[in-house]
Amino acid sequence: MNPRRVVVTGLGPVTPIGTGVTAFWNGLLEKRCGLRRMQNFDPARFASQLGGEIDGLSIANAVPKGYRKAAKIMARDIVLAVVAAHDALRDAGLRTKCLIERGEASGSPNVDNTRLGVNIGAGLICADLPELAEALHSATEGGQFSFAKWGTEGMNNLTPLWLLKFLPNMLACHVTIVHGAEGPSNTITCGEASSHLAIGEAYRTIARGSEDVCICGGAESKTNPMALLRQELGQRLSTRNDTPEQACRPLAADRDGTVVSEGGGLVILEELEHARKREARIYAELVGFGAGHDAYEPRQPSRPHPEGRGTAVALRKAFKDAAIAAEQVSLIASFACGLREHDRSEATAIRGVLGEHAARVAVMNIKAGLGNNGAGSGALDFIAAVLAVHSGRIPPAFNSTPPDPACGLNVVTEGLANGNFEYAISTAYALGGGQNAALVIKRQANG
């Protein structure tokens, strides 16, 4: 039996440069930068004091009135996912329980809840430090932490459902509850590769007939002290604190690290005939998925393979899955986020797989204005690639000059590249752990 075809019908980006398709895409076309000195907490004691923060995000605008009390047990990552899901479903024109209850859709649901799935990539959700600090303080005795006092006093200073705010699977959990999704649900926690792996799994679930529609992608917030400290200890961050708009410099010769951020995106994947039956707008078709691994040094699992072995494996598998040759690709959405070894590793893999064609294919990169928000970064790259294929335009990368000759890619840095991009590929890799993934997107003439 031939696998069913899978198309993209809804996009829900939530980013520091804008929430929703129009704001996000215009922000990319205008080379808007969402990076600044952290304002949600005082970063003065950190070497890198920059981040991509999202202002004015409200969970009340994405859930039914009766569900708002659940926001008390939603960490920032969960809020990002719930808002992204709401925007993606609205963009797709799907009528779910939530949208009908909110009055944003009329009539009955136009998707079978038992065939509506959710696949979301999530990160290591950071604890709410003020609440945790108060509980820990009450469990100290003579300046030392006491397990006995923690059990009798410390834990009593935490919200009863405190743990539910920080479980990675709660992103998908809340989205499924809010929208009444009863199909397959999954959570993937593989760092920056999480979104691509979640989208790829959703693609295959629909292709094999287990569901008709899937809300998929990823979200994460790294704009908090614990996440910032982890990245700083890993020596991954730019310290251009005086010029935040120039700090994240993917593929540039003078790059010195990435910048933490928050955000993510969820997309609606749908079986082609299901989408056609309801006369949905189709952005593009997803035709290939591949994954690989390249953690080759046990003592340094966060170090990428110098030849990009994992990315190369993912690319070759994605091309094979899509049944196309590498030479048919006209656009690559690069994941490069400003880390010297990782940028070069990915670029080496692209050149190795595409051969001479790598010098001709256009390369898009959007990290300069967004930074790296972990599990959600790949979803934003994928959304940007889908919009580029759909519109025939590539937003220019900025902060990517002068280019690193060791990367050797044809990065679009000036103006807007226009054209008919028949096939595009979006790549992603985890900064720690070695997971890699690639997704092949095809232009839909009737989109």
Core attributes:
12 helices; 17 strands; Peroxisomal Thiolase, Chain A, domain 1; alpha+beta; eleven-stranded mixed β-sheet; two-stranded antiparallel ribbon; 447 residues
Describe this structure in words.
There is one protein chain. By secondary structure, this protein is α+β, with helices and mostly antiparallel strands. A hairpin with a 2-residue loop joins strand 6 and strand 7. The strands form four sheets. Strands 1, 2, 5, 8, 9, 10, 11, 12, 13, 16 and 17 form an eleven-stranded mixed sheet that branches. A two-stranded antiparallel sheet has the order 3-4. The protein has a two-stranded antiparallel sheet with strand order 6-7. Helix 2 packs across helix 6. It has one domain: Peroxisomal Thiolase, Chain A, domain 1, CATH 3.40.47.
